Structures are given as C-alpha cells and as structure tokens.
Amino acid sequence: MVLFPSRTLYHSVPFDMEAVEMTSLKRPHSEDDVGNVDEIKRQKISEESSKTGSNSEQSVDIVTEQPGKPLLEDKKDDILNEEGEEEDNELEESDEEGDPESFADMMKHGLIELDVGITKFVSSHKGFSGILKERYSDFVVHEIGKDGHISHLDDFSVPVDDEEPSEEIFTVLSNEDKQHLEELQLFKNKETSVAIEVIEDTKEKRTIIHHAVKSLFPGLETKTEDRDGKKYIVAYHAAGKKALANPRKHSWPKSRGSYCHFVLYKENKDTMDAINVLSKFLRVKPNIFSYMGTKDKRAITVQEIAVLRITAQRLAHLNKCLMNFKLGNFSYKNHPLKLGELQGNHFTVVLRNITGTDDQVQQAMHSLKEIGFINYYGMQRFGTTAVPTYQVGRYAILQNNWNEVMDLILKPRPGKGYLVKCREEWAKTKDPAAALKKLPVKRCVEGQLLRGLLKYGLKNIVSAFGIIPRNNRLMYIHSYQSYIWNNMVSKRIEEYGLKVVSGDLVLKGGTAVHIGEADVDVYTIHDIVMPLPGFDVIYPKHKIGDAYKEMLSADNLDISNMRHKIRDYSLSGAYRKIIIRPQNVRWEVVAYDDPRIPLFNTDLDNLEGKPPPILPTEGKFKALKMEFSLPPSTYATMAIREVLKMDTSIKKQTQLNTIWLR
C-alpha cells in the first residue's frame, strides 16, 4: 500500500451498525422541471445555505465544470471487475463515427439510477459533490492476481536466455530501412517488397538481417537475392495483404515457456483496443493474447497479459513506437491467463473540487471502510442508449418474442451518425441489405443482426440473432437479471436495513442456505447474499422472496420455471453479496491550485524517476484522494456513489452540468 507521509491520514473508528440510518435516492425533477432553470438554481442556492440539515438526507450539489462533461463519466468508463461474464466482447461499440449530436442532447434519452433499481444508501453522512475523471489520470486501476499480488509496472528489463537473439538485430538496420519496412508492414505504400543491400556480404551478416526484419516487423518474410552482382535481403508479405502471421513454432526454444507474460500499462485505452493495437504492430491475431479481465478506457490501468510465442524482446521494442502504452515485467511461463482468475482490482481515485467539509469526508470514508456500499450493478450494465439492454432481455428473449428483439435493437432512436441512418433505412424498407449499406462498420450488434437477417430471412430471427457472438447475446439476459437484483436489494434494504433476519440467505461451501431465527446473531450483513433469478437458485423466506415472484410475474415470467426452450437463454441464476466492504481503504484530502496537474505519481512516473508532485498546504481547490481494493463483479462507481451520494448516471450528471452552465 502507498502511504501518504506528508499529510494527515484518517484512520477508522468503530461504527455502530444498528445506528446507521438508511437513506434513499429521491426521484429527480421531471423533464418539464428541467426547463425552469432559475427555479433550480434557486434550489441550488437554498441547498448550499442549509448545510445544517439532517444528515440522513441526500445532498446533490452541482459542480461548475467544462460544458457537456459529466461529473461521473459512466459511459463505458465504469471500472468493472467482471469475472468474464461479458468481458470478452467481440463486437465493436455501437457508437459509430459520424456527426454525433451533443452529449447532453443524446443523454436526454438515457437512464438514471432510479430506472434500474439503484435507490438506497447505507451511510448516514450528508452527501457532497466532487468531479470524477476530470483527468483520466485521476482514475488508476491495478489488477490483483489470483495470488493476491497487485500488478505494477516497475521493470523494463528483458529476460535473457541462451537462445535469445542478439542485441545486434536492433542496430543492423538503418533508420531509413526501418521506416521503409514499417511502411511495408502496415501497408502504408504501394510497394510489395523492400530490398536491403548487404554491405558486408557474409553469411553471418545476412542471417542477422534476416532475424532483424522478422523480429522487428512481424508478418514480413525475407529472402536473399542477387542483383547486379550484389546481395540483397528482400522483405515481403508472405501471407498476403489480409492474412495475419501465426506464431512460428519452429523457432521457439524448447526450454522456454510458450507464453510471454508481461504487465501492460495503458492510458485512456480499453483492454481490447490495446490488444488490437499490439496485434496490428506485431502482425499477429488478437486471439493469441490472454488476460484475466478487461479494463476500461478513461483511466490509467495496469494488468497482466500473456501472449503465445512472442519474445520479450519483440514486445519491449514496442515501447519505442507506441503511444499511451508501456510493456514490462516480462517472464516466460507455460500457461496462458484465464478470464476471472483475478482476485479483483486496486483503485486509486481522485475526486477533484470536492465541496464536503473535512468532517463530512471523514464520516463518508469511515462508513465506506467499516460498512461498505450496496453491491448494485452499475449503470454500465444497462447500456446508454434509448433502449436499455434489460428491456431486450425482459420483453423479448425471455418472453420468446423475437420480433420484439429485432425491433428493439433496430428501431430508430434520436441521434446522428451512421447508426441512425442505418436504423432509419431499416424502419423505412425492412431491407437488411439496404440498411447495411448505411453502416460502414458492420461489427456492431446492429450490423451483426442485419447480416443474420440477410442470411436467414425475417422469418428466422432466432438464427439471425444467433450470429451475434454468444457473450453479447447473453448480455441482454444478464442485464435483466441485474435489473431484478438491483430492485430486490433496494427492497431488502428498505424493509430490513442492515440487520440480518430469519429467512435471509448465506453461502456455505458454495451452497445457499436459509438462516433460521436461532442463527441470526451468527452472521452479519456482509455474509448475506441474494439471488439473480434462475432455475438453480433459492429465494429468501421472507417478504423479499414474495417480491421476486411478484416482479417476475409482472413480466409474465414464472419464478418456478426459468428455463428457455433455447438452452443458451435459460437462466440458471447465481448469488451475489448485498453489501461489499472494500479492503485496503486509505484516503487523504489534498489542496491544489491548477486543475491540470496530476496529484500523484503513476508507475510510469516512478520508473522515469519523476519526483512526486509538490502540493500546497492551502489552495484554491480541495481533492479527495482515495484508495481501495474491490473483489470481482463489483463496480467502483457504486463505492464512489456511496461516498458522494450522487446519481452516477450520465443522464443525471449531464443534466445537472447543463442546467448549471446555461
């Protein structure tokens, strides 16, 4: 753990669990109310002046910030510790390039927390405002491996073995040769080959050049040619323009592990984007990379990656030519990585321009450390468009209404860009070929579904939908399960608070059992789980069990028969803890004057020998720097929500910013 020696650290004090009062997130103003800007500003001023109000009430303050920038940026930027359920997405995002409408206008049609059952808090402190991810470097994520080790980038050295190529391969080519070879590798010119003259014509020198080209420019092959009495090494694409090189088995030493493991440090890139970039530069297929979990874009993240039969030297060479990436801590092992093998993630988060007093901050962070937060599925789980993913799962797949599946995914919705034109063409013609012509990039969900409809026809939507990769299809059902779970845990907190009651569920050896009256005092709220609905789970034996049945019945689903005639869409269910208590929680309040400067060093800063930032004792602004570790399948934004007591949806934050800045 990083300590903060120069400023005061807050330490935990005992908490009275019985004394904690539940607070709810009140329904926000309607769209009509939003138009009355003056009235809302007056309410803002009134809230500011009534700081002495009840601590159990939610306080939502509006932060003056750059236009259009949400306070909590959730759009695919939630940091989610998923265990592989939806991590390995093979589709591109649905937000295609084009002339997008303003972010604020787009999010008028989005969801707020209330829509997906996120309504309760477990702490009693008065909320305060703060800006999350004002800079992406304010959100740093370090992966925690299955052995509990926190991944750090702290070593650029390359492991040496007897069969490693010599360092000479990195110097034998001139800068001009390297430029021409890179252009050839990336198809940046019309040339089909590059010829390199061998000045000192010896077999040893030719061998070094052959190795240098193949090592530094994967995907290229070489041959020796005589031209006018001179020897040339000719580089070319052996596999053709579109094909990707496969790992060479014949050149890999038997004594070396088949997988090169390394730590990937990346800035403002998600994991799949990063792997696609690495694949492009190495000229290999992305599927030879493996990882334990994906990390999102708007953050600095550090995680372990493994790649099949690519040397550490080749990977280390990428540090010279890639922006926003660094690779290090190389080692060779005999196994890849598997999704879900991680213990979780460790977060370092800065909330800038906080309005809370030191007492408010201390109370909020003590509560987070001692009690924790409601383990809601965050807003990322439910999509950011006008059609929430859980609606597709609820009304369509589970109810076997496949026409509704098609309509929900392809129906027109507000916006601009290629996807809007594609959906409008579909609504007008119901012709998948015509709609596809409006979509330059066809690897989004809409493009895949249209390709399926073109192949199988409108009378076989089930098969057409099946073209979408399995993980993406199941996302809709998992989203519906999450929607039910969020609503039920809110009811559980409202009904019983943080008390353990008879009929609650706990896990014993992976099996859920009900708690009897005699065992109520044996457990705490941190032991209690609640089920995601399915055919292989049991439900609480109290009012919440009945609430599950009522909510599913309202959606025309039978709680006792959650199997689907298509096996993939049958819900087995699962269990999820209702309260998560973060580990390794530390925090400090720091002052700063310039919002552009970083407030702490990253791994890369430390490797490059940069001194820690010098911060003033008093400054124009205050920031809360917090650190905590979370297990898999939990959302960091839900922990931060509990601290700030603010709605984390993009729509709500954009709405607040837009109103305040008019």
From TrEMBL:
Residues 372-581 form the TRUD domain. Transmembrane segments: none annotated. Pfam families: TruD. The keyword Nucleus applies. It catalyses: a uridine in tRNA = a pseudouridine in tRNA; uridine(13) in tRNA = pseudouridine(13) in tRNA; a uridine in mRNA = a pseudouridine in mRNA. It is found in: Nucleus. Residues 28-50 have a biased composition (Basic and acidic residues). This is Pseudouridylate synthase 7 homolog. The lineage of its organism: Eukaryota, Metazoa, Chordata, Craniata, Vertebrata.
